[in-house]
Amino acid sequence: MSNSSASAGNVVVIVSGLSSAWSTGRLVYQHDFYGNDNDVMVANANTHGALVTAEILENAPDVGIIALKVMPDDGSGASEANIEKALQWVVANADAYNITAVNLSLGGGAQTTAATTSISDELAALAAKRVLTVAAAGNSGDGGATQSVSSYSADVNQICVSASTGDGAFPSWAQRSPSLTDVCADGTDVRITNLSGVTYTANGSSFAAPAVTAAVAQAQQAWVEQTGSRLTQAEFLDLARSTGKAMGTAGYFELDTDALLAKIAQSAPVPTAQSATTITVNASGAPAGGVNAHFKLLVDGKTVGQATVDSAAKDYSFTTNLTADQAHKVQVQYDNDGFVNGQDRNLFVNKIT
Length: 353
Fold this sequence. Notes:
By secondary structure, the protein is α/β, with parallel strands linked by helices.
């Protein structure tokens, strides 16, 4: 599979499987850690993983998706061992696959204080790489009398998301804790549309977490474009808190993605003198299934152009404004790698000038 990504980077979804009934966006990698193969598709049209992935894509359509399946096809309980294997893969491949966020819409347990599990070392390693992990707080609440979150969301190195009603209140089933919940997002009657145009409504913190995951991917893209580096978990939460909407229950706030991204835009550094610069990529490709290779050209993390490449080596030129006397990162992202009917689609980059 390709390690390329959309401009907003790649998002890992730890899933019960995907379905052909739902969009998988730019699916750049998939692996089934339960079945030990590279196929995460299941027969259940509305499998939980497909719904979660679809919500991420509806909020952030530019992200690439990495689907890691950790449970049986019927969506029954995921073993912690398989979740750990999936996260170990993420740690090992975070840089190569430009991973910006991980979504854990998994439940189980009731923690009242910060907790560690077998995946804590992986979560710490990802946080150090500024890959932010977003975890659902759970749906086993009792109206707030006992304040707790699920075991997977109680680690300090991930963002714990409790479900809200979207208008400043909590559904009675929402697990939450003023000391453990980091941010709240609407998890009630969340509307998600499949490839046939049929809209479903979903409830649960599993559908509050994807909205935050999408916001993380968008914020990281914007921050990289502004500063050249990614946000830490603390920096993202500071931005989310300062732009979020206070809830009726003291100590909690709801995510406001538009306000968060607007604040990042307002913090843009003063522009320096720039000049038009032409970057030329000499490339050729091998088609598969009648489809030619395609690439995007990124400079300093921002897409400046794209091209479809045939079998003859040609120059593809792109012009962008760059600051003089300053180093710039130039990337060619091959985004449609594939193997069709025995044909291997490939991109060959001969020279960049």
